[in-house]
Amino acid sequence: MTLVVGYDGGESASAALDAAIALATALDEPLVVVCGVSPPGGLGEEYDALEEAVVEELSPVVVAGVARARAAGATAEPLLVDASPVDALLTAAVERKARMIIVGYGSAGRIRAALFGAVSHKVLDESDIPVLVVP
C-alpha cells in the first residue's frame, strides 16, 4: 500500500508532509507527494500559459518535499497531476491503491482559496479512502 500526501509548499501542506513522513517511515510504506497543477478555467492559449507557470513554480517545491521525505528515511516519489488539487489527490490515491490521503488544514491564501477552494474539505467529502487532516 501507499500513502498519498498533498503538497504545494504551503505551511499547512508542510505540516501534512511531516505527518506523512512520520507515518511512511513508521509503517514502512512508500509515500507519493502529490500536487495538482491544473489551474481553473477553460482551454486556450492563456490557460496553457498559466498551467506552464504553475508547473514551473510547483515542480521544484514538490521535488524538495520528496527530498525532505527521503532524508528522513521514507521511500518517496513526486507526482504532478494535470488536475485540480482535489482531483489529483483522489486520482493518485485510487491509482496507487493508497491506504490513506494526508492533507493539511490551514488558512489557504486568498488567491489559492479563490482558485481551488478548501482542498481538505473537498477531499473529505469526496474520498472513499481514509483521509488524515493535519492542522
Q: How many β strands by DSSP?
A: 5
The main pleated sheet reads as: 5 strands, parallel
Number of helices: 5
The SSE string, one letter per element, is EHEHEHEHHE
CATH fold label = Rossmann fold
Strand content: 15-25%
* CATH level 1 name: Alpha Beta
The tally of domains stands at 1
Spans of 5+ residues with little confidence (pLDDT < 50)?
Answer: none
CATH arch. level architecture:
3-Layer(aba) Sandwich
Q: How would you sum up this structure, described in words?
A:
This protein has 135 residues and is of the alpha/beta class. The protein has one domain (2-134): 3-Layer(aba) Sandwich (Rossmann fold), CATH 3.40.50.620. Helices cover 52% and strands 21% of the residues. The protein is built from five helices and five strands. Strands 3-2-1-4-5 form a five-stranded parallel beta sheet, sandwiched between helices. The longest helix is centred in the middle third of the chain and has 27 residues, at 45-71. The chain is globular, with a radius of gyration of 14 Å.
In short:
It contains 5 helices and 5 strands; from the N terminus they run βαβαβαβααβ. By secondary structure, it is an alpha/beta fold.
Task: Based on the model shown, name its key terms.
globular; 5 strands; alpha/beta; 135 residues; Rossmann fold; 5-stranded parallel sheet; single chain
Reconstruct the topology from this structure.
Elements: E1 2-6, H1 11-27, E2 31-36, H2 45-71, E3 76-81, H3 85-95, E4 98-104, H4 110-116, H5 119-126, E5 131-134
Helix pairs in contact: 3-5
